[in-house]
Amino acid sequence: MASKAITFIGNTLSPLGGDRQTPVRGLPSTAAIAGHPIHPMVIPYPVAFLTSAVASDIAARRTGDPFWARASKLLLGAGLVGGVGAAVSGITDYLTIKRAREKATGKLHAYGNPVALALAGASLAMRRGKDAKPGTVATVLAGLTAGLVFVTGWAGAELSYRHMVGVVGHDDQHDHAEKQTVS
User: Fold this and answer.
1) Residue 36: which H helix or E strand, with range?
2) What is the 3-state composition of the chain as percent helix, strand, coil, each rounded to the nearest 5?
3) Residue 142 located in a structural domain
4) What is the pLDDT of residue 167?
5) Inside any domain, residue 176
6) What is the mean pLDDT of residues 54-81?
7) In the prediction, which pLDDT does 98 show?
8) Position 88 in a domain
9) 181 phi/psi in degrees, rounded to 5
10) Is-contact 103 163, C-beta < 8 A?
11) pTM of the entire structure?
12) For residue 140, what are the domain limits?
């Protein structure tokens, strides 16, 4: 039941425009090194840092140990720096690949990520000069950041895996056997 709901939501936000018999072909990334797209190479770091900040916030609030409060600050800061770095290649692809701009998931990914970075920045700013446990608002902002990063990460994966944005594919890259459904 849950998988049907997820599929319905995914198809509603991002209809395929192709199927197994006539797959959507890939569009190579504009921001690439030797044909390898940069954006998916660098996004794991800010995603990991920004989502881990919530766990360290919870640890800081439960234990009162300043180590966890400092860890949260470092994770948020590293997530912001990494997120801005990832944004450079992401913006390049978004502005130069029409399919990315046409899809609802492209817009969600492109406009949601700056909001996530702003939330993380606000959470980090509230902790300035403090190594004590983070306040409730700072922790909630970190949680909202993590939740939004989850949603925008899903949208980015939809662009790559469903719409083949940033994926090399000059012709039909799937042979007949690959297109068959598993029974």
Assistant:
1) strand 36-37
2) 70, 5, 30
3) yes
4) 77
5) no
6) 96
7) 87
8) yes
9) -75, 145
10) yes
11) 0.79
12) 37-170
Contact 165, 100 (CB under 8 A): yes
What the block records as the tokens of 115 is: 């909001």
Record the tokens describing residue 66, joined without a space.
């300043």
The answer to whether 165 touches 93, Cβ cutoff 8 Å, is: yes
Spatial distance between the Cα atoms of 16 and 151, rounded to a whole number of angstroms: 19
Residues ≥6 apart with Cβ < 8 Å to 170: 25, 26
Rounded CA-CA distance 119/42 in Å is 20
The total number of structural domains that make up the chain: 1
DSSP code of residue 166: T
Question: For tokens 């997120």, what's the residue?
Answer: 83
**Per-residue pLDDT at 19 exceeds 90:** no
Compute the half-sphere exposure of residue 81: CA atoms within 13 Å on the CB side of its CA: 5
- pLDDT tens-digit series, residues 87-134: 999 999 999 888 889 999 999 999 999 999 999 999 999 998 877 789
